Task: inverse folding
């Protein structure tokens, strides 16, 4: 039998009183865009045309209007949206909302880059850290192991992520839990702390799904996916000098002269 109950109920299935396949598909609702939540606008790229710098991306949640004061994370720089870019007069707009891909022009020429997240100045800000706790489902052909570095892709951001600690693992077939493991097997789930090469703007998955989920790349293969559970305290990736209760951090290529006696630069 071919095509039974696809578009019309079939006499061959007189015992079945449910919907046809097409009726069932028609009842599936699309994903509702979260327009009433705080703004989350991950930067996909920045284009320069003449004297204009156009920040482009997809609004994942919230609304954005010309004149809005916004902040750009992880640095938290503040500026104002002056216009939406458009190519034809009919495409001109003064506002946009979740689900729309747009280009905006802002008042200040900061060095903006792919992976940063724009929010309204008064909105709840994203988490900012170079360490995060996540739940990971591993699909890689090699085990995920403590100390190994992977490529973490979250929204439009990409950053090197080293497995700092595997808090616990859950065997997918037996649901057996193991604490403080050194590796995560294929098809298993683990609660993991990652240390990132750079500070990243992100959200807990329960608050904002689009900026709270990620994939892990091992070499050239997508090897796992995960959701952010929480931000962990940041750790310095630079050089730290300590004198008593005084701590001073310097990054590579910074040049300072530090007077230990006066405890000042």
Result:
């Amino acid at each position: 039998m071919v095509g039974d109950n696809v578009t019309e109920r079939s006499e061959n299935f007189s015992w079945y009183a449910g919907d046809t396949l097409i009726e069932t598909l028609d009842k599936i609702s699309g994903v509702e865009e979260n327009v009433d939540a705080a703004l989350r606008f991950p930067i996909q790229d920045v284009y320069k045309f003449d004297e204009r710098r156009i920040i482009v991306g997809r609004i994942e949640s919230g609304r954005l209007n010309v004149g809005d004061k916004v902040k750009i994370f992880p640095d938290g720089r503040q500026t104002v949206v002056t216009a939406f870019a458009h190519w034809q007069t009919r495409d001109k707009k003064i506002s946009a909302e979740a689900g729309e891909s747009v280009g905006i022009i802002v008042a200040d020429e900061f060095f903006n880059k792919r992976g940063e997240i724009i929010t309204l100045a008064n909105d709840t800000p994203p988490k900012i850290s170079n360490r995060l706790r996540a739940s990971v489902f591993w699909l890689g052909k090699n085990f995920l192991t403590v100390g190994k570095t992977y490529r973490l892709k979250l929204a439009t951001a990409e950053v090197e992520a080293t497995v700092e600690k595997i808090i616990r693992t859950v065997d997918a077939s037996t649901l057996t839990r193991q604490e403080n493991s050194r590796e995560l097997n294929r098809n298993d789930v683990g609660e993991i702390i990652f240390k990132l090469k750079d500070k990243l703007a992100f959200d807990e998955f329960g608050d904002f799904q689009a900026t709270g989920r990620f994939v892990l790349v091992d070499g050239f293969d997508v090897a796992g996916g995960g959701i952010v559970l929480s931000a962990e305290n940041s750790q310095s990736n630079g050089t730290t000098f300590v004198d008593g209760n005084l701590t001073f951090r310097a990054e590579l290529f910074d040049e300072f002269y530090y007077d230990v006696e006066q405890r000042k630069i």
Q: What stands out?
A: The longest helix spans residues 21-26. Helices lie at 21-26.
